[in-house]
């Protein structure tokens, strides 16, 4: 199995690059984000590779980092997500942004991917929610709160405060982060109005 390729960019296709490794041209399929970050033809490049072997073909998928390749694998553990959809998601969201979106249950961010509808986005967020926090760079308290709100386990004042901020036009992840911070400073017995006031102050920083 091929795990990494290092060579010269020979040419670009719509969704692939030809990488010349010692005179052999490998066709490597990449996300649009990866293709945009690769150098011009004739320049050197290194790609982490995922090799797919089928009865009728061998297909190579290339990534700028091992973490991006790991997300490619993780995404395909979700029902209904194949290589094409996984590449499309990684073309829309960088691995860190994808991890944050899943950790915060931000289905809308995932659904921005062309070809990914609300149902598939929800499956991605739901089925990978336990794996995402390890890759995310958001406050664990915010991740915990986002999960509690999504599962309708959050205290009523907290849920109402987040809902109020969302109604004011803030995104769900933004609102959850602000209210998590507000709840930390105000304590568990804080009322909805106080949480909203502190949350708005947090958002205006």
TL;DR of this structure?
The chain is of the alpha+beta class and 205 residues long. The chain has ten helices and five strands, in the order βββαββααααααααα.
Fold and architecture overview:
It is found in: Cytoplasm. Keywords: Cytoplasm, DNA damage, DNA recombination, DNA repair, DNA-binding, Hydrolase. It comes from Bradyrhizobium symbiodeficiens. One of its GO terms (molecular function) is hydrolase activity. This is Holliday junction branch migration complex subunit RuvA. The chain has 205 residues and is an alpha+beta fold. 49% of the residues lie in helices and 18% in strands. The chain is built from ten helices and five strands. Strands 1-2-3-5-4 form a five-stranded mixed β-barrel. The longest helix has 15 residues. The mean pLDDT is 86.
Topology at a glance:
Elements: E1 4-12, E2 16-21, E3 24-29, H1 32-37, E4 44-53, E5 58-63, H2 66-75, H3 83-92, H4 95-103, H5 107-111, H6 118-128, H7 140-150, H8 156-167, H9 172-186, H10 192-203
Parallel strand pairs: 3-5
Antiparallel strand pairs: 1-2, 1-4, 2-3, 4-5
Helix pairs in contact: 2-3, 7-9, 8-9, 8-10, 9-10
């Amino acid at each position: 199995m091929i795990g990494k390729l290092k060579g010269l960019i020979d040419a670009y296709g719509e969704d692939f690059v030809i990488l010349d490794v010692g005179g052999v041209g490998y066709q490597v399929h990449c996300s649009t984000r990866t293709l945009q970050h690769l150098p011009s033809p004739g320049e050197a490049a290194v790609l982490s590779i995922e090799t797919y072997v089928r009865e009728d073909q061998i297909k190579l998928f290339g990534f700028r980092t091992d973490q991006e390749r790991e997300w490619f694998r993780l995404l395909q553990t979700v029902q209904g997500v194949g290589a094409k959809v996984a590449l499309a998601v990684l073309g829309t969201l960088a691995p860190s942004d994808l991890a944050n979106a899943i950790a915060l249950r931000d289905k809308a961010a995932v659904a921005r991917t062309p070809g990914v509808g609300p149902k598939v986005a929800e499956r991605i967020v739901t089925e990978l929610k336990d794996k995402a926090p390890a890759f995310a760079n958001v406050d664990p308290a915010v991740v915990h709160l986002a999960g509690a709100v999504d599962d309708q386990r959050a205290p009523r004042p907290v849920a109402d405060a987040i809902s109020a901020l969302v109604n004011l036009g803030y995104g769900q992840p933004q609102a959850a982060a602000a209210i998590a911070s507000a709840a930390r400073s105000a304590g568990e017995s804080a009322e909805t109005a106080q949480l909203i006031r502190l949350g708005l102050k947090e958002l205006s920083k």
